[in-house]
Amino acid sequence: MARKPEVFVRAVSPEEGRRLQKITKTSKQPVRMRRAIVVMASAQRQPVPAIARLMQVSEAYVRQVIHDFNERGFEALDPKWSGGRPKKVDRATRERIACIARCCPRDLGWPFSTWSLSKLREALQNNAIADISRETLRQILKAEGVSWQAVKTWKAGNDPDFTAKMNRILDLYDHPPADGRVICVDEFGPLNLQPRAGRGWFPQHRPKRLRATYHRTQGVRHLLGALDLATGKIHYRIRDRKRGTEFLALLKSLRARWPGEKLYVIADNFSPHKRAEVRDWTASHAVELVFLPTYSSWLNWIESEFAALRYFALGGTDHRSHGEQDAAIAAYIRWHNQHATPKRDFAVNSKIRLPDYLPKVA
C-alpha cells in the first residue's frame, strides 16, 4: 500500500506566525488552541504522523486542519458549534409541566397537598407526559417562572367604604392639613416577659442562647403609641390595660402637647377607639378621628415603626421584669426620636396607588 503524500500548511508569514503563537498561549477555547498548534507544527515542517502523536489525535484530523487552514485561513481555527442534543421536552410539554406544578395534587387524584420534585417527576412519568430527571424538572420550572414559595394568608377587606377611607388617609399622608397635624396611633403588645427570638453577629456555629420558658407569672403590659408625621417622632405610654380610658388619656396628652392645632388622629377599628366618651371628647377638643378600613392595619404608618421597635428593642432579649423591659423600650424610642425625620412618601410605588386598586373582598 502506497504511503500517503506528506501534507504541509502553506507558507506562513511572520505576522501570521506571531498570531498563531498568541492563540496557542492565550486562547480560552481548547479547540481553537489545538488547531493553532497543529498549524504551527506543520509550518515547522513536521510530518502529519509526528503531529498526530504530539497532539494525541488522528492523522485524518491533522490533515483536515491543515487543508482547512490552507483554504480559509484563520477562520478555520474557530470551532463549529452545533446545536447540541435535541431537547427532550418541547415547548407545549414545558407549559403543561408548569401548569401541573401550579395545581394542587389532590385535584389531580394524588393523596397529598403539595408537590416535591420527586413526586411531580413520578406523576409526569406515570402519565407519559415526560421522562426527565429532577434537575431537568427544576430547570424547566425555573424557566417557566414557577418557584418554591411559602403559602401566605390574607384577610379579606369587607368594608364597603374601603376606597373612600383609604383615599382619605392617603390624602392626609400626601397633603398634611395646614390647620393641624396628622398623628397615627395604635396599641403595641401585649408585652410579655419572655425570651424573644432575634438576630445578631456571633462567632460561627456559636449563636446566642436564650432560656425556654412556659410560665409567665408577671402579667402583660401594653404600649399605646402615637407617631407624629410632621417630625417622625414617637410619643407613647405603657399601661397595664388598653381600654378606652387609657386611649383617651393618650389623646389628652397629645392635645396638651399641641394646644393650638387641630389633630387628625388615624386609628384602627379597635372598640375602645369608638367609645362614646372618646367621641364626645374629641368632638369638643378639635380632634378628628380618622378610622382605617376594616382589616387594613397596614395603612397605619405607625405599624412600620412598631416593627422596627420589635426588631431592635426586643429581638434577642430576655427581660426578667416589666421595669427592665419598659426601660429598654424607652431607651430605643429616645434614640429613634433623636434621629427622626418628617414622614413623607407613603407607599409611593405601591399598587394601592393605582386608580383601579381594590382589596381582596370576601
Query: Ends: how far apart?
Result: 91 Å
Specify Rg, calculated over alpha carbons: 37 Å
The count of strands amounts to 5
CATH architecture of the largest domain: 2-Layer Sandwich
Arithmetic mean pLDDT:
90
Q: What does the main sheet amount to?
A: 5 strands, mixed
CATH homologous superfamily annotation of the largest domain:
Ribonuclease H-like superfamily/Ribonuclease H
- Structure annotation, total helices: 12
Strand content: 5-15%
Notes on the structure:
Pfam families: DDE_3, HTH_32. Residues 181-311 form the Tc1-like transposase DDE domain. GO terms for molecular function: nucleic acid binding. It comes from Nocardia tenerifensis. This is Transposase. The chain contains twelve helices and five strands. The protein is an alpha/beta fold. It has three domains: 14-77; 91-143; 162-201 and 216-353, 2-Layer Sandwich (Nucleotidyltransferase, domain 5), CATH 3.30.420.10. It has a five-stranded mixed sheet, sandwiched between helices. Strand 2 (221-228) and strand 3 form a beta hairpin. Helix 1 (14-26) packs antiparallel against helix 2, helix 3 crosses helix 4 and helix 11 crosses helix 12. The longest helix has 17 residues, at 322-338. It is elongated. The protein starts with 13 loop residues before the first helix and ends in a 24-residue tail after the last helix.
